[in-house]
């Protein structure tokens, strides 16, 4: 179970860590972040955790600002000293809304509620995975894209990588042309041949033949250079890096 804590008070963050590990010592706390911007940067460059613990008032704004920049897939428990944001909080993937000073009984109740939902979700995904294997369709071989008023069919073999930029989705061809597409990367990840393509982070799916160089990076991360050159640095998180290296070594 992977968790991140977004809290700008050191004492409150330490208290949350102790409470978490007391409830479940198998939990991995991936990061403790104290501003909305640091949280946005982290979430854009790392796989999202199973659970996020969020304070609302941070040093540079409110944690709601994070949702404006990043599509969050994690379950969320809000922990705050303010009660006026409860309705807004439940618009997101919110398990519970807890008020400070935090009581262990309230936190335990919220965490158990999360575990129950997480378990049911894992079961559904497991059954869905079996069904998908039974009904498995051939890998995607072409993309229908629009260029001005023309519709163009691009072969998957001509695609170097797919990427997301400013909430829009694109493919980049080997020849360096960018085409907007309707599919998001979550959909594409299941449609493309996993031997040829790898989802390196939330912004990029990269084809093996498009990889120019692989570098060991800070904190056991990996930096990837691709051809054609990407619009931003491609950084693979420490957790994702292990799986990526296995993929390279097939």
Main attributes of the structure:
250 residues, 5-stranded parallel sheet, alpha/beta, 5-stranded antiparallel sheet, Rossmann fold, OB fold (Dihydrolipoamide Acetyltransferase, E2P), 32% strand
Proportion of strand residues: 25-35%
Order of helices and strands: EHEHEEEHEHEHEEEEEHEEEEEH
Q: Report the total helices.
A: 7
Major beta sheet summary: 5 strands, parallel
> How does the helix and strand content classify structurally?
alpha/beta
Distance between the termini: 27 Å
When the domains are counted, the total is: 2
Q: Give the overall average pLDDT.
A: 86
Overall radius of gyration: 20 Å
CATH architecture heading of the largest domain: 3-Layer(aba) Sandwich
State the CATH class of the largest domain: Alpha Beta
Provide the spatial order of strands within the biggest beta sheet: 2-1-3-6-7
CATH superfamily of the largest domain: Response regulator
Topology of helices and strands:
Blueprint: E1 2-6, H1 10-23, E2 28-33, H2 36-45, E3 51-54, E4 57-58, E5 61-62, H3 64-69, E6 75-80, H4 86-89, E7 94-99, H5 104-134, E8 142-147, E9 150-155, E10 159-165, E11 168-173, E12 178-181, H6 185-191, E13 197-199, E14 204-207, E15 211-216, E16 222-226, E17 234-236, H7 238-248
Parallel strand pairs: 1-2, 1-3, 3-6, 6-7
Antiparallel strand pairs: 4-5, 8-9, 10-11, 10-14, 11-12, 13-14, 15-16, 16-17
């Amino acid at each position: 179970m992977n968790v991140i804590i977004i809290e700008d008070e050191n004492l409150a963050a330490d208290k949350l860590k102790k409470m978490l590990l007391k409830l479940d010592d198998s939990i991995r706390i991936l990061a403790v972040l104290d501003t909305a911007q640091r949280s946005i940067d982290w979430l854009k460059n790392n796989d999202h955790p199973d659970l996020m613990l969020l304070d609302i008032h941070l040093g540079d704004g409110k944690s709601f600002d994070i949702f404006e920049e990043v599509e969050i897939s994690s379950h969320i428990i809000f922990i705050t000293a303010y009660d006026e944001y409860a309705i807004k909080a439940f618009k997101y993937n919110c398990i519970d809304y807890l008020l400070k000073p935090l009581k262990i009984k309230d936190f335990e109740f919220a965490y158990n509620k999360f575990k129950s939902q997480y378990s049911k979700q894992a079961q559904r995904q497991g059954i869905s995975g079996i069904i998908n294997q039974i009904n498995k369709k051939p890998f995607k071989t072409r993309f229908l894209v629009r260029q001005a008023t023309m519709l163009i069919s691009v072969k998957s073999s001509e695609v170097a990588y797919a990427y997301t930029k400013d909430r829009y989705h694109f493919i980049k061809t080997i020849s360096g042309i960018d085409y907007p597409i309707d599919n998001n990367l979550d959909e594409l990840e299941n449609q493309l041949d996993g031997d040829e393509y790898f989802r390196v982070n939330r912004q990029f799916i990269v084809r093996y033949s498009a990889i120019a160089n692989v570098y060991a990076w800070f904190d056991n991360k990996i930096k990837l250079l691709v051809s054609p050159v990407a619009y931003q640095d491609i950084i693979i998180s420490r957790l994702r890096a292990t799986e990526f290296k296995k993929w390279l070594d097939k």
